Amino acid sequence: MGRKTILVVDDERKQRQTIRGWLTGHGYAVIEASNCHEALLVEAGHGEMIALLLTDLVLPDGNGYELSKTLREREPDLKVLFVSGQAGAELRKFLNEPLPDVHFLRKPFPPEDLLSRVEILLSSIDPLTDAALKS
After folding, report:
1. CA distance 116 to 114
2. Is the separation of the CB atoms in 7 and 50 below 8 Å?
3. Alpha helical stretches, state H, the chain
4. Among 36, 47, 52, 129, fewest CB within 10 Å belongs to which?
5. Full-prediction pTM beyond 0.90?
6. Number of neighbouring beta carbons within 10 Å of residue 133
7. pLDDT beyond 80 at 115
8. DSSP letters along 21-52, please?
9. Hey, is 126 helix, strand or coil?
10. What is the pLDDT of residue 104?
């Protein structure tokens, strides 16, 4: 099956590098982008399926929520984990639609919290796929 690829989008280079280190240290392939435009280019040029988008909500040229919607149009099975230092009402302005599969981790977070959340997201089975396997 190979390593699962994670696209990490954060405008803070040090944050991206730290997350990359944690994820690659646990066997994931990581590609990075610093903003929405770059993320779309990286995804388009990657050539393989991206399993997870790990994105900050606040980006210099947009927001992670809109980025996730665009990328999910291209890759419907893409899992998404939002990260942000924002909370409460600030988040609602980005996540303005009820989504059953919104996953969020508040910054700052320790590596074990991130790795646990990533593992849970990437190991989850899509109910339609699961039903098809059982029939």
Report:
1. 5
2. yes
3. 13-24, 36-46, 64-74, 89-92, 111-123, 127-134
4. 47
5. no
6. 8
7. yes
8. HHHHTTT-EEEEESSHHHHHHHHHHH-S---E
9. coil
10. 85
User: What one-character DSSP code corresponds to residue 54?
Assistant: E
According to DSSP, residue 108 is labeled S
pLDDT value at residue 22: 97
CA-to-CA dists, residue 71 to 63, 96, 104, 105, angstroms: 13, 18, 17, 20
Question: Which residue's entry shows tokens 């099975």?
Answer: 77
Q: Inform me whether the pLDDT recorded for 99 exceeds 60.
A: no
DSSP state of 59: E
pLDDT at 26 over 80: yes
Give the type of residue at 106: R
pLDDT band, very low/low/confident/very high, at 118 (cuts 50, 70, 90) = very high
Higher pLDDT, 131 or 122: 122
